[in-house]
Amino acid sequence: MYLSYETLQKIRNLVVDLDGVVYLLNTPIPENVEFLYRARLRGFRIAFLTNNTFLSREGYVAKLKNMGVEARVEEIFSSAFVTAGYLQRERPGARVYAIGERGLKEELRRAGLQVLSRFSPKGVDFVVVGLDRCLTFQKMKIALDFLLKGAQLVGTNPDPTYPTENGVIPGAGAILASLERASGCNAWVIGKPSPNILLFVLDALGFRPEETAVIGDRIDTDVLLGKNCGVSTILVLTGVTRREEVLASSIKPDIVVETLQELRGVLDL
Ligand SMILES: [Mg+2]
What we know:
Elements: H1 5-10, E1 13-17, E2 23-24, E3 27-28, H2 30-41, E4 45-50, H3 57-66, E5 76-78, H4 79-90, E6 95-99, H5 102-110, E7 114-116, E8 126-129, H6 137-148, E9 152-155, E10 161-164, E11 167-170, H7 172-183, E12 188-189, H8 195-205, E13 212-216, H9 219-229, E14 232-236, H10 243-248, E15 255-257, H11 263-267
Parallel strand pairs: 1-4, 1-13, 4-5, 6-7, 6-8, 8-9, 9-12, 13-14, 14-15
Antiparallel strand pairs: 2-3, 10-11
Bound molecules: magnesium ion.
């Protein structure tokens, strides 16, 4: 453990990753769920943060409820929601072409952006890329045409792969990389480990960095994200990362725990 007692005492806000922390695919991780319940009772403020773009915020509230976790819509931050927020700030009502699934398009529309479904000679302001399990060559061609007409390329997240029951599938980052390659554009990336996504959360909820810890199961996304933003980092080994990988990595989490139950002593819960 690399944190002083004083630093730990200050932590009042937890930014919690979903996959590998609250659940594995569709199965809750009971020790971690129980810890979150306890942390809330003790007055900790919680935000849930995921790079995944399949569901809308309401969709995550419902999924969490099924896992035994109560959450409010305002506490849910997906890379789709945060991307939509940034684009709306940058250019209100912008025209957007999106490669992605329903959750992404819903968030973009809800933020007041115009989501086009086919090519238009008028062009678009942004081409937004999330994970799309119905990706076609046609969609890639439309996206490329818009990019060559001057649209800005935006990535919801840079994840190379995404885990499923049947092994990994190509992630949003893989689609993004092929469009970068084809167009010669560099994408503006919002999701973890880019600081953009966490800065948005801190700002939206009024969390101070020194009072906040990120909890996640991946060194290269969650822990790196925390380091990039100057907040404390807690790695939990209930997801993809094994203890040997922590030792081998140059990115060192402040705290490593087998399950979040081990945090009870650390955070005085
Ligand atoms: Mg995770």
